[in-house]
Amino acid sequence: MSVIVRFAPSPTGYLHIGGARTALFNWLFARSKGGKFLLRIEDTDRARSTEDAIQKIFQGLEWLGLDWDEEPVFQFARAARHAEVAHRLLAEGKAYRCWSTPEELEAMRAKARAEGRQPRYDGTWRDRDPSLAPAGVDPVIRLKMPQTGETTVQDMVQGEVTVANIQLDDMVLLRGDGTPTYMLSVVVDDADMGITHVIRGDDHLTNTFRQVQLYRAMGAEPPTFGHIPLIHGPDGAKLSKRHGALGIEAYRDMGMLPEAMRNYLMRLGWSHGDADVISTEDAIRWFDMAQVGRSPSRFDMQKLTSLNAHWLRARADEGLIGLIRPILEGAGFTLDEAGTARLQAGMGGLKARCRTLVELAEAAAFYVEPRPIRIASDAAKLLDPAARERLGAVAARLAAVEPFDEATLEAECRAYATEIGLGFGKLAQPLRVALTGSTVSPGLFEVMVVLGRDEVGARLEDAAAGRNPEKNSRR
Ligand code: GLU
Questions:
Q1: 341: nearest Cα among 362, 368, 360
Q2: Which of 228, 260, 279 is the last residue of a domain?
Q3: Which domain-ending residue is among 228, 255, 284?
């Protein structure tokens, strides 16, 4: 039997970290087994489902590189099919109509609570003659749950879990207005789509027992379930907006790479030995639900950022230029041919120092900034009159130095510092500030080579003449 799994988000909000991780586990499971990964949009909550949320789910999955097989299924469009199944179960005597009013249901719940029992439907209409139905009430259709025995689920993550059937009340399949409930829709869709494995958050575990009974009533084989523990915040509480739980696009905007996001999310609950840095190819090779732990994992921004730094370094320079281009352009820089060539030449030194694309774009900006470059205010202090005079002298010496390579440039600058009896550091920092606008940058002589003789000369002259505007924020 080949594997078919699905990701079934409700489009009532953004695609958050937990949903993205559920999608990733399903995708890895499918890809590791040569099976199919389907997408079903559970848009039955008409009041809360939005087109914008649907688009965000598609875009988020695309950005993460989680490609789905076949056309997405929209659950609301299948409502007639869900109702048909409820009516079939009714005709087969496996479900029944219930005319209990909201007031009666509330009274049942109150009584159960007073007697210290779980509030549940008491089965009033299970065997009652429908001819006793009151006028003016639209009946719901309920499933006849077994009242004896147990329901056991062999969960891929939670192991064997059992509940006494007496705990399962006769759940509503079809509401009085003819609309299907979530429990009915999800089971009918999973059965019709041929889903073999349901991998989802463990907040759905308690639904599973009743869903299993519904499969049996329908004469369908229940799929294998795997309920993955939820993601918690750093403080151990369930991840929420309070922890800055954001839509997946927020991480893209922070400058995370999809491969880093995949690496981070797969490690939230799944492990392979003590490997931390795991490529998607290896994950597909190694993924196994048996290695998914039962305890909740904690979201850790620092861990994500450090994995991102790793994957950033692993990217080809060319690709990184393409990724930071929109960020630089958004900040008002223009990438002409010369600027692009500098980025190409300087990328190795830049990416080694950055953890995100946003940091990379900020660090790279001085290579494409038109003269006179702006100087961060904390760095501008280093350009006092004495330093500016020395920068003018260095500009004159470097105008003729041959060859214009790192070793020769360094030798020339050191020779000058020695001649004037200045520690090399005292010369190097103002040089760095004049060339990059900041006290932090890739290696000074690497920067000089990337900028080239003319630009180095011009930037040093700018600083010597005090032409650079200040900018307030540190870059
Ligand atoms: N639509 C449900 C949710 O977003 C998931 C249902 C399921 O996976 O069975 O929580």
A1: 368
A2: 228
A3: 228
Looking at the fold, whether 90 and 165 belong to one and the same domain comes out as yes
**C-alpha distances in angstroms, 417 versus 84, 248, 382, 420, 464?**
88, 51, 16, 5, 17
Placement of tokens 């041919």 in the chain: 337
* Under-50 pLDDT residues of the chain: 474-475
Q: Kindly state whether residues 245 and 286 are assigned to the same domain.
A: yes
Looking at the structure, tell me whether residues 88 and 41 fall in a common domain.
Answer: no
Contact yes or no for 133/99 (Cβ under 8 A) = yes
What's the rounded Cα separation, in Å, for the pair 188 and 218? 9
Residue 459 has a pLDDT of 98
> Residues lining ligand 1, judged by CB closer than 6 Å?
8-10, 42, 186, 200, 204
- Is there a contact between 218 and 243 (Cβ–Cβ < 8 Å)? no
For ligand 1, the distance from its centroid to the CA atom of residue 266, given in whole angstroms, is: 19
Q: How far apart are CA 175 and CA 86, in angstroms?
A: 10
> Concatenated DSSP letters for 75-113?
SGGGHHHHHHHHHHHHHTTSEEEE---HHHHHHHHHHHH
- Please check whether residues 212 and 91 belong to one and the same domain: yes
Query: Which range marks the domain in which residue 464 is found?
Result: 375-471
CATH number of the domain that 436 lies in?
1.10.10.350
Looking at residue 475, its pLDDT comes to: 42
Substitution site in 10, 24, 153 for ligand 1 pocket (most atoms within 8 Å of beta carbon): 10
User: Which atom of ligand 1 lies closest to the CA of 186?
Assistant: 9
pLDDT of the residue at 233: 85
CB count in 10 Å sphere of residue 238: 14
183, 204, 208, 230, best to mutate for ligand 1 pocket (most atoms within 8 Å of CB): 204
Residue 44: which H helix or E strand, with range? none
- Rounded CA-CA distance 174/179 in Å is 6
The length of the chain in residues reads: 475
CATH number of the domain where residue 253 is located: 3.40.50.620
Distance 6 CA to ligand 1 centre (A): 10
Q: What is the pTM of this model?
A: 0.93
224 and 250 in a single domain? The answer is: no
Distance, CA 287 to ligand 1 centroid (Å)?
Answer: 22
Tokens of 294: 């039962």
Domain count, the chain: 4
Beta strands in 332-401 (DSSP E): 375-376
pLDDT at 244: 63
Q: Are residues 308 and 358 in the same domain?
A: no
Phi and psi for 55 in degrees, rounded to 5?
Answer: -60, -40
3-class SS of residue 180: strand
Shared domain for 64 and 147, answered yes or no, is no
| 99 and 187 assigned to the same domain | yes
The catalytic residue positions are: 241
* Encoded amino acid at 251, one letter: Y
